[in-house]
Design a protein that fits this description.
The chain has two helices and three strands. It is α+β, with helices and mostly antiparallel strands and 94 residues long. It has one domain. It has a three-stranded antiparallel beta sheet, with helices on one face.
Length: 94
């Protein structure tokens, strides 16, 4: 019984880690796109001319994107440490 519970916890932790990694990758790609873009701020928001096209965002968009990136990075690291504590191999060796 205990082994089945542990296996379920490990399986869930791996799934959460994979989701966190995918989220972090998407946020990182968005940050890269912002860094490669030209932008201006006007009364209506933050106008971005990027390789994927022109977009208008709220003026807090970049700050919120960076905050989400850092939160996702912390979450991924917490999940990685949790898996290691459970006796699993490091899922994201550096």
């Amino acid at each position: 019984m205990w082994q089945e519970d542990r296996d379920a916890v490990v399986k869930r932790a791996y799934r959460e880690f994979r989701d966190a990694k995918e989220s972090l990758d998407a946020l990182e790609a968005a940050c890269v796109e912002i860094s490669e873009s030209s932008s201006i701020t006007n009364d209506e928001g933050y106008l971005i001319l990027s390789p994927s096209g022109v977009r208008l965002h709220d003026t807090d968009y970049v700050r919120e994107l960076v905050a989400k990136y850092h939160a996702a990075k912390r979450n991924k690291e917490v999940l990685r440490k949790r898996l290691i504590e459970l006796g699993e191999l490091d899922p994201d060796p550096k």
